[in-house]
Each structure stands twice: as C-alpha cells, then as structure tokens.
Amino acid sequence: MSENLTFRFNVEGDDFTSAGQASVQVKKNLRQLGLDSEIIRRVSIAMYEGEINMVIHAGGGTAEVNVCEDYIEIILEDHGPGIKDIEQAMQAGYSTAPDSIRSLGFGAGMGLPNMKKNSDTMTVESTVGVGTRIVMRIMYKEGCV
Amino acid sequence: MTVSELVSASGFDVQCAPCPEKEISGVYIGDLLSWVMGKASQGDLWLTIMSNVNVVAVASLADVSAIVLTEGVVLGSDVISVANSKGINVITTNLSTYEAALKISGIIQ
Questions:
Q1: What is the CATH number of the domain that holds B82?
Q2: CA A78 – CA A53 distance, rounded (Å)
Q3: Which of A86, A129, B70, B95 gives the lowest tally of CB atoms within 10 Å of its CB?
Q4: Domain annotation for chain A: domains and CATH numbers
Q5: How much is the pLDDT for A44?
Q6: β-strand A60-67 against A71-78: which pairing, if any?
Q7: Region A136-143: what's the mean pLDDT?
Q8: Which of residues 31-90 of A touch B (CB under 8 A)?
Q9: How many CB atoms lie within 10 A of CB B97?
Q10: Is residue A39 within a helix (H) or strand (E), and if so which, with residue range?
Q11: Do A105 and B52 count as a contact with CB atoms less than 8 A apart?
C-alpha cells in the first residue's frame, strides 16, 4: 500500500473571519489530486462543520486529513469543554451556541448531523473538561472501509 | 443555464463574477449556514440575506453556482475580494427573497 498523504491544520478559536480556511484549503488540495467532486464536497462539508464547532465551542483545535487508498479520514481534536451528552448533541436542531453566534448564521444545531450525513463512519469521543476527538471516514466507493 | 445568462435575463446586479459560466442546477433558499451546507445541492443558486464572510466559505464548500443576495443586501468590499479569490459568483437584487425566487423560477424553467 502506498504511503498516505496527510494535511494538518491549526484551527484558531473565536476567529470567525478565517473560520473555514482549513476546509477550503483541503478542498483545493483534494481537487489537485483529481478526486471525485462529490467525495470532495462531502469531505469539505464534514470538515467545515467540525472546524466551525471547534471555533465556536472549543477555543480552536487541530484538524488532520489523511488521504488513504480507499478513503479519506478526518481527525478533529480539541481541548475544549467537551460534550456532556453526545446523543443529544447529535440530534438535529440541538445547539448550545449563544445568540451572538446565531446572528452570524451558525448555531442551527445541524453541525454534528451534517458531519454524520456526509461521512461513512464517524466516532465521537469526548470527556467533559478535557476535550473532544472526532474521526470521520469518507469512502471512495461503498464497502471499502 | 449559466450564471451569466441568468444575470442577463433577470437584470440582477453583479457584485463579482469570477466564474460566470457556472451551470445553474437549481435553487436553495436559506440563512442558516449549516442548513445550507446540509441541503443545498451542487450547482444551486443560493438565495440569502446573510452578508458576513462565512457565506463565501459555505458557498465554496457546498459548490453553489452563485450567491444571490436579496432585499438589497450587498457584501462588503473585503468579502467580495475573498469571493473573487475563491471563484464565487455574487449577484444582488432589491427584490424580496420570495420575489427573486419567483423571477428566477420563471427564467430557469
């Protein structure tokens, strides 16, 4: 198996002006690799939602994108407050974002559901007071993971 | 139909059109960014009244054909320069979102 290609990014917290830069960069990189546009779209959306979550809730974090033989893997890690009830957070429409964030068009409670929708597998590990780690995989073809 | 053809037929104003030949596949209306990310399809025109810089990132990642700002909303010059650099078309109209949607519907059908 050929060596995986990895992109790493630092996501700044509370910076809504540059929020999404990592995702836009990943999209550009994946386009240069000539990947299918629908795969690129799913990766970009899943990563953007995660990136925005880290900006809003966690004071930033890190994002790693691994381009593997059969899938693309996105690993998002932060040292934010953690998620108390992951099941509740996964529900469409549930949000703890403050009004200041909502006025920017965020905080609709669709971030985690969109991440799940656009990935083939997604695991969320979170400890209150410690942080959150999310791993998503997007397969090139069904049944490859 | 391309974005450029829609602009000609609708009389909407162009704030920037780095990729005027993008094909329009449909329309999505919404101001909540995650809804747009989750529901808009590739090639849709995106009708919104949101004007902060994040709409450019959302438009880019969701692969919409153009942002259509309604109700007389326009993007600031700093945001427009980001849109230009990301290849995002931005068009504007004084029509309400409903009126703009009706007009677009009459043109693209």
A1: 3.40.1390.20
A2: 10
A3: A129
A4: 5-139 (3.30.565.10)
A5: 95
A6: antiparallel
A7: 83
A8: 37-38, 41, 44-45, 48-49, 52
A9: 19
A10: helix A37-57
A11: yes
Which sign, positive or negative, has the C-alpha torsion B31, A95, A51, A86? negative
Chain-chain contact of B57 with A20 (C-beta, under 8 angstroms): yes
pLDDT tops 60 at residue A145: no
- Closest Cβ–Cβ partner in B37, B50, B53 for A45: B37
Cα torsion through B15, B19, B23, B26, rounded to 10: -40
Query: pLDDT band for position A144 (50/70/90)?
Result: very low
**Taking CB atoms and an 8 Å cutoff, what residues of chain A touch B52?**
16, 104-105
In this predicted structure, the answer to whether residue A17 has a pLDDT above a threshold of 90 is no
In total, how many domains does chain B have? 1
Residue-wise pLDDT for A94-107, tens only, equals 999 999 999 999 99
Question: What domain range includes position B18?
Answer: 3-108
| Contacts of residue B13, Cβ cutoff 8 Å, sequence gap at least 6 | B91, B92, B93
Sign of CA pseudo-dihedral A46, A30, B26, B79: positive
- Both tokens of A73, joined, read 């893997």
Q: Do residues B58 and B106 touch, judged by C-beta distance below 8 A?
A: no
Chain B interface residues (partner A, CB cutoff 8 A) = 31-35, 37-38, 42, 50, 52-55, 57-58, 60-63, 86
Mean pLDDT of chain B: 96
pLDDT tier at A3 (50, 70, 90 boundaries)? confident
Task: Give B94 to chain A, closest Cα distance, Å.
Answer: 21
What's the pLDDT score for residue A72? 97
Rounded mean pLDDT of B56-71? 96
